[in-house]
Amino acid sequence: MKDKGLEPIQTLLQSAPEKLINTIFCNCKKGCNYNCGCKKVGLFCSQVCTNCKGQFCSNVESNTTDEDAYDINEEISDPSFFLEQSIEIQQQGEEEESEEEHNTVEKFEDYLDDS
Length: 115
Prior knowledge:
The chain is mainly alpha-helical. 46% of the residues lie in helices and 0% in strands. It is extended and about 65 Å long. The termini are far apart.
């Protein structure tokens, strides 16, 4: 703490996993037309979009059944849903990084063995 306040911690690491940072949700007030934030970047609206919830707009993927939508809405109503999702995405990213590091080490060891 600095001067009885919070001081940001500087880091070179990303603030969140890339998959989470690139997630986009719209705030369309009058339907999801050409101004829709999701539609502008080529995404369908989802259950986490502010107003349409991915159900009551023209920018939804058509293969979701009512039963699937009910299950998803039930999960989203749980306050821990987003926390669990972000932790899962972060863990997947860490696993991918670990696997890449392992492969790099193996390639280097193979190179040393061949030398």
